[in-house]
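Predict fold of Amino acid ABC transporter permease; 253 aa.
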Amino acid sequence: MHLFLQTFFNPDELLKAFPALLTEGLRNTLLIAGLAIVFGVVLGVLLAMLLLSHRRWVRLPARIYVDVFRGLPAIVTVSLVGLGLPSAGVRPFGRDPLGYAVLAIGLISAAYLAEIFRSGIQAVPAGQLGAARSLGMSYLTAMRVIVVPQGVRNVLPALAGQFIIDIKESALVYLLGLGLGQRELYFIAQERQAATYNSSALVAAGACYLMLTIPLTFLVNRLDLRLRTGGRKTNKPAATPAVATPAPSVMEV
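Predicted 3D structure, encoded as tokens:
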């Protein structure tokens, strides 16, 4: 038991690991995940629009992209983007591994968000689009102004859930060899574990991840409940009106 505690919960190692984890690691993990989700949202909305097209030649490239990036293990995508592109002479971010890390996580996120947005947009009643078109809006304008905003509202819990996934998948970018000042949580913990042969730093990194993901998970659950109930409290039954009279329609008013 003593050996177990010394390996995973060594007080000295925990105290030495937490400062770098909370200053450099936490900041860079949120930076990578935040930029990746922004990139994923923009690309995901575009892909969702293509997936909803009535033209097969428009849907096909988007479908291939989504299936490929959802089917590949995240570690393979990170390696192909972060290590493969610079080796092939494609260096949009020069030698900065942080840019490739954001790109890799963002490409993965976009594939999942495309399906999330597609389902959200399809959940919007078809009459919304028809009404907008009858007012003279073009298809693209109606989608941008009327349909897509409602679809995004439908998938806010799933969007927040994808951000949690991006936070956890940011641990894979340690493969890219981030420089000093760019290291995320797992990179710092893995370096210390390799230097000390003690896993307490990894436990400390896990605690930092939980500090991020548990409150976000709670927020996702609350947001999902609020959207499903329309903000109504569910612990009290609705009051029964004394006299049930039919409400007048808009036309009668």
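The two ends are 76 Å apart (CA to CA).
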